[in-house]
Amino acid sequence: MYKIVYMGTPEFSVKPLKALIASPNYEVKAVVTQPDRPVGRKHKLTPSPVKSVALAHDIQVFQPEKISKDDTVLHFINDEAIDLIITAAFGQFLPERLLEAPQYGAINVHASLLPKYRGGAPVHYAIWNGDDETGITLIKLVKKMDAGDMLAQAGIPIEADDTVETMFEKLSTLGRDVLMANLDAYLQGNITPIPQNEAEVIISPNITREQERINWDESAQRIHNQIRAFNSWPVAYTTIEDVRYKVWASEVVPSATTQAAPGTIIKIAKKPATLQVACGDGTVLALTEIQPAGKKRMAIAGFINGGSGNLEEGKQFDSNEG
């Protein structure tokens, strides 16, 4: 039985962990995850999904604020003669001394078709850029971000109605399957690692606060992709007259064109309920689910029927730079 230290944090990391726990071939000796964080309006300190699974199975948990400055996990790996580290969206860089400590090193379940989308937000960028496909790549971990040799890879379509939330759910399942289908072969030396083509590398850095804001000069399709890519985190937003609106869902209005300036509200109607906004290149986007500041998210019909606040035809959402 191979002894594993598993490192992961969000819901994406849960299915691979559960599969390892259920397998008779592996023993998850410890889980390393991010420290508990405040969640919600009441800022309740909440464990990560991975920690919750570990505790439910009486697995030891480590939560270093900075693993690069804390050798507790390293000492555990050496003391327990850990065979392998497996990471999946852990959220921190691992120092070389940690990568080299287990007999079989460290491998990562990465949510993209490497070398495309190295970095912390590969699923967001795949949807935002309008890709037809994304996937999972199992790689050897090295000091450079997501640059290790590839051990296995599998793709999955991005459907027109997929959001980052739905894609993470699909990729969690795929990540579990790719890991479990190839782990024995890796440990037994039956996989030939494939170096990544550096000429094809695309970086997907963490989403910034500036990127969350909708730029109405973009085309309706590009903005629609952004809204999908940020649902349910971090959620795209726009402002008008200093009032902030999160935009959870939208639809490109087919064949519609407008001469109005980008960001202008060109139509608000109750039957059928619609709120349409001019975008770049004369394209038109219908906002279908929004959340005014301090209120709950709501379908556009409920928003309009309840009174559309300061949104009126002819008014203009603020520019991306505003």
Give short descriptive properties of this protein:
322 residues; alpha/beta; seven-stranded mixed sheet; 17 strands; elongated
Structural account:
With 322 residues, this protein is an alpha/beta fold. Helices cover 25% and strands 29% of the residues. It is built from 9 helices and 17 strands. Strands 5-2-1-6-7-9-10 form a 7-stranded mixed sheet, sandwiched between helices. Strand 3 and strand 4 form a beta hairpin. Helix 1 packs parallel to helix 6 and helix 5 packs antiparallel against helix 8. The N and C termini lie far apart (58 Å). The model has no long low-confidence stretch (mean pLDDT 96).
Short summary:
This protein has 322 residues and is of the alpha/beta class.
**Shape, principal axes of CA atoms:** elongated
Q: Strands of the largest sheet, in order across it?
A: 5-2-1-6-7-9-10
End-to-end distance, in Å?
A: 58 Å
> What's the β-strand tally?
17
Number of helices: 9
Query: The biggest beta sheet, please?
Result: 7 strands, mixed
Radius of gyration, in angstroms, nearest whole number: 23 Å
Residue-averaged pLDDT:
96
Say what oligomer this is: single chain
Query: Helicity level, as a percent range?
Result: 25-40%
Question: Could you give the topology of this structure?
Answer:
Elements: E1 2-8, H1 14-22, E2 26-32, E3 37-39, E4 44-46, H2 49-56, E5 60-62, H3 72-80, E6 84-88, H4 96-99, E7 106-110, E8 116-118, H5 122-128, E9 133-140, E10 150-157, H6 164-187, E11 202-203, H7 209-212, H8 220-229, E12 236-240, E13 243-252, E14 265-270, E15 273-278, E16 284-292, E17 298-299, H9 300-305
Parallel strand pairs: 1-2, 1-6, 2-5, 6-7, 8-11
Antiparallel strand pairs: 3-4, 7-9, 9-10, 12-13, 13-16, 14-15, 15-16, 16-17
Helix pairs in contact: 1-6, 5-8
